[in-house]
Amino acid sequence: MRSRAACERRRGRRGRRDRGQAAVELALCIPFVCLLVLGVVQVAIIVRDRIVVVAAAREGARAASVSASPAAAAARAAAGSAIGPLRTSTAIAGSAVTVTVRYVDRTDVPLIGALLPDVTVESSITMVLEPP
Fold this sequence. Notes:
Helices cover about 55% and strands about 20% of the residues. It is an alpha+beta fold. The protein is rod-shaped and about 100 Å long.
């Protein structure tokens, strides 16, 4: 059986060997945590742009449905969105108008942008044509 003093000496030596272990583990984990945070930021930007594209398509479809010139009205309404150049196309089939809005979302968050390709966000909205 070991004496109490011998156990305390062994515990003291082990404590000195473990000193700095948490700092090393933190230094090894920080790059992965940073990549994870940057990935979440990039996904949040893409989701935000998706919401803006859907809203622009809805505004364009509404403007096209009540206008005498649907294609021009849809392009003007979609151009007022909060993000860069949107590609808008308008199709009229019978008594309905469909507006499709496309946006190429650049993945430009540092480190993550190099790993992910650019994302094309697209939304199509159909509304009934109303007489002007």
